[in-house]
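Support request, please re-run this one:
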Amino acid sequence: MHRFMFKSKIHRATVTHAEVDYEGSITLDTTLLEAADILPYEQVHVWNVSRGTRIITYAIPAEPGSGIVCINGAAAHLASPGDLVIVATFSEMDETAARSHRPRIVLVDEKNQIRHAHADEIAGPQRRENY
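Re-run finished. Output below.
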């Protein structure tokens, strides 16, 4: 049996740009992509915490250390600079791998700089400090 598991996420990144006049995707600081084990052009889910919208698109790398989180194309109508988003990936794995899998959680600050590259998932109603 194979299972579709949560692989990684960049948690509560701040949207820096929303560019309607682009074909599509989300442009992300390469440092964040690498920390979250997201490859260029990999499928990502983008969950807008500020608006409640969700999209599925693909990641495009931006300059490392730039802090860029840019929603492109039609999805730019669903986000504005300053919105908080979660960028998540999933992976199919066999039963054995799934049972020992631990997702990579990357926490960022308000400038999209990494605060913690290997955080643990916290289930509600618990809350992280310093948000």
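The chain has a mean pLDDT of 95. The CA atoms of residues 7 and 71 lie 21 Å apart.
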